[in-house]
UniProtKB/TrEMBL annotation:
InterPro entries the record matches: DsrC-like_C, DsrC-like_dom_sf, DsrC-like_N, DsrC/TusE
GO biological process: tRNA wobble position uridine thiolation
Pfam families documented for this protein: DsrC (PF04358)
Similarity section: Belongs to the dsrC/tusE family.
Species this protein is from: endosymbiont of Escarpia spicata
Enzyme Commission number: 2.8.1.-
Name of the molecule in the record: Sulfurtransferase
Keyword Oxidoreductase: no
GO cellular component: cytoplasm
Biological role: Part of a sulfur-relay system.
High-level lineage: Bacteria, Pseudomonadati, Pseudomonadota, Gammaproteobacteria, sulfur-oxidizing symbionts
Record's subcellular location: Cytoplasm
Keywords: Cytoplasm, Transferase
Ranges for region Disordered: 93-114
């Protein structure tokens, strides 16, 4: 599998995750999101950037949904009831896996968020 981005081919595995995470940039993220049927909102970009930051700057950490909710409760103070539904509104097939794919991180092997 691959993505076409700005006239270049970016290689991905059979599940759509980047083969080389160094190929990631915002245009690549947009192409993966389009392939996933996701339109990235400001909150969607917050999630993508959070997952990248955790993976790249926290020893390969890939937060599960529960940890994502805890983090964004502190960040998105305008949302009265921050829960997994908010994350699923941004990434319907699973915020940890689908957003992780768009963020260019490796596929996580764990199930669910809790």
């Amino acid at each position: 599998m691959s993505y076409e981005v700005n006239g270049a081919t970016v290689e991905a595995d059979d599940h759509g995750y980047l083969v080389n995470s160094a190929d990631w940039n915002e245009d690549v993220a947009k192409a993966i999101a389009a392939a996933e049927g996701v339109e990235l909102s400001e909150k969607g970009w917050d999630i993508v950037n959070y997952l990248r930051d955790e993976y790249l700057n926290n020893n390969g950490n890939q937060p599960n949904e529960r940890n994502m909710v805890k983090h964004f409760k502190k960040v998105w103070t305008d949302i009265p009831k921050m829960d997994t539904k908010v994350l699923y509104n941004e990434f319907p097939t699973g915020p940890a896996k689908q957003a992780g794919k768009i963020a260019g991180t490796p596929e996580t092997k764990r199930k669910g968020g809790y």
